[in-house]
Amino acid sequence: MKPPIITLLTDFGSQDYFVGAMKGVILSINPEARIVDITHEIPPQDIRAAAFNLLACYKFFPAGTIHVAVVDPGVGSARRPLVIESGGQLFVGPDNGIFSWVCEREGDYRCIHLTNDKFFHHPVSATFHGRDIFAPVAAALSKGVPDSEIGVPVDDPVQLERIRSRSVEINAVEGHIIHIDRFGNCITNLTRADFSNGARLIINNREITSFRDFFAAGNDEAGELFCILGSAGFLEVAARNAGAARFLNAFVGQRVKLIRSAKK
């Protein structure tokens, strides 16, 4: 049997001891665990950035993987710690919507409120649940402890806004920017199913009609805006050799409208 995989996704960065402490707790409970860092460079307290990055990569891990995601501005408050089973994988972290896009995509999930402090690291710090709750719980799960021993079922986890786009007219779909990556590409919640040849994207009163297969297509000047279907499966707005977000004054949550051609 292969050692269990535990992934870590946080906003802790690499300057401080936080990630190392979480790994130490996991390995002290299960030395056989394989720990994979997804990223620790989520912008501080940016739950949506964490939700997007998790959504973009969890499918690439094998069944049974345990994902620990800690972007937790509510740490120490009444917000609940959770483990969620969805898509054949487990997700451990705060109840702040960080897993809601995964659950929405999968369409089926089971949610456990972590209440049995027998599985926590003590004393539990009010400011570091990543080390004292989420890491030890993930390690316990990786050793085969059933989640029914760690907590109680709940059916009302916090949800972010829905990831799916919505039709607003016969030939128009409304969406929004769900993430802006480090290159300044504006990633929307629109997918291949939403658009066709001849579509136009309107964002911040700018109309974009160029749809491309890869970033270097075309011979335009730096800053020319175009759309591309990104590797995460969502429609992105990009600018060759420049950041589209800066040219558009775009921000996460900003509405976009896709006008499809009359013929599909």
Secondary structure class reads alpha+beta
**How is the biggest beta sheet arranged?**
9 strands, mixed
Radius of gyration: 20 Å
How many strand units? 16
Cα distance, first to last residue?
49 Å
Mean pLDDT: 91
Molecular shape:
elongated
- The CATH architecture name of the largest domain reads 3-Layer(aba) Sandwich
Count of distinct structural domains: 2
The CATH superfamily of the largest domain is identified as: S-adenosyl-l-methionine hydroxide adenosyltransferase, N-terminal
List keywords for this structure.
Rossmann fold, 19% helix, nine-stranded mixed β-sheet, alpha+beta, 16 strands, 264 residues, 2 domains, seven-stranded mixed β-sheet, Elongation Factor Tu (Ef-tu), domain 3
General description of the model:
19% of the residues lie in helices and 30% in strands. Helix 1 (18-29) links the parallel strand 1 (5-10) and strand 2 (34-39). It is elongated and about 60 Å long. It contains 5 helices and 16 strands. The chain folds into 2 domains: 5-154, Rossmann fold (3-Layer(aba) Sandwich), CATH 3.40.50.10790; 166-259, Bacterial fluorinating enzyme like (Elongation Factor Tu (Ef-tu), domain 3). With 264 residues, it is α+β, with helices and mostly antiparallel strands. The strands form 2 sheets. Strands 8, 9, 10, 11, 12, 13, 14, 15 and 16 form a 9-stranded mixed sheet that branches. Strands 2-1-3-5-4-6-7 form a 7-stranded mixed sheet, with helices on both faces.
Compile the SSE list and pairings.
Elements: E1 5-10, H1 18-29, E2 34-39, H2 47-57, E3 66-70, E4 81-86, E5 89-94, H3 100-106, E6 110-114, H4 129-142, E7 151-154, E8 166-169, E9 172-180, E10 186-188, E11 200-203, E12 206-208, E13 211-212, E14 225-229, E15 235-239, H5 244-248, E16 255-259
Parallel strand pairs: 1-2, 1-3, 3-5, 13-14
Antiparallel strand pairs: 4-5, 4-6, 6-7, 8-9, 9-10, 9-16, 10-15, 11-12, 11-16, 14-15
Helix pairs in contact: 1-4
